[in-house]
Inverse folding.
DNA sequence: TGGCTTACTGCAAAAATTGGCAAGAAGGGG
DNA sequence: CCCCTTCTTGCCAATTTTTGCAGTAAGCCA
């Protein structure tokens, strides 16, 4: 991870921001949680390393990381916002609006759409972590029963 | 609008919820605002009709409406959540993660992707209001300058 | 229409998130 | 290596959003 940390530091600096111990700890904490994690979990983890870090710093830093693309956030509309370290490979999720189930999908499915948006609208869709809401097969079947 | 209200009432009832004056007023208020509106605006509008309606009711009701698909919400990551009455025609938005600018795009662009997700993953993507985050052309140019 | 069940609402308190500000520290230049 | 500028932080207060609860009323059935 130390190796990766250095890369991240460069990204932060390149964007004109400063690399502080707080930011490193927070990034490590998000990293440490494999997969999705919540703000509360990150906070607990960070406090173990440095109990003086304030919640407001966490909010601000997480927001910054999302802006920089280091961290990916996913609002599953269940009251909690999830955070995840940005993975090198692009992956996306289908989230069922009914049962909340989440499923990873292949990048290839959206490639063409992303390209078309880029050429038609000159807009670079963030392909790091796309979240598509909808209804999964199981729930759709259930709904049509009634 | 009265005609539409009746349709909406049916949807609410069909989902097993009750139609109350408060809910009608809130739906009307979202309707009255053409296009995007914020929670604060809806609150103000609702209070003109019935000053006794509480904020918590508004929060709960808006959340319910979004679940039912009557209202569409868009978190532009600028601190405010936007609400909009679900339109009969499908439309989608590109939101720039940098400058927050928002742009409507054509449904055709995503049609193919939606179909592929349906056939490959048996998942019906909610095509009512898709929000794609990314970087708009202007901001992309700005970023590469540095 | 009257009575019953249970969802909905308003209120108050709690919890989460954001913002202002002065002190502290990162990074650049000498 | 020290200094200077300016971004960051922690603290505190304000604001926003959520939650628990008891009274109220919508919808159903006789």
């Amino acid at each position: 991870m130390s190796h990766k940390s250095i890369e991240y530091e460069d990204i932060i600096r390149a964007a004109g921001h400063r690399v502080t111990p707080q930011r490193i700890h927070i990034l490590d904490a998000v990293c440490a949680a494999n997969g999705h994690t919540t703000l509360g979990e990150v906070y607990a983890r960070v406090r173990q390393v440095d109990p003086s870090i304030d919640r407001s710093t966490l909010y601000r830093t997480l927001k910054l990381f999302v802006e920089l693309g280091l961290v990916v956030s996913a609002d599953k509309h269940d009251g909690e916002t999830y955070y995840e370290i940005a993975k090198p490979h692009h992956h996306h999720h289908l989230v069922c609006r009914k049962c909340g189930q989440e499923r990873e999908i292949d990048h290839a499915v959206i490639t063409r759409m992303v390209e078309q948006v880029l050429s038609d609208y000159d807009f670079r869709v963030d392909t790091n972590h796309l979240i598509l809401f909808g209804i999964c097969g199981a729930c759709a079947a259930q709904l049509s029963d009634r």
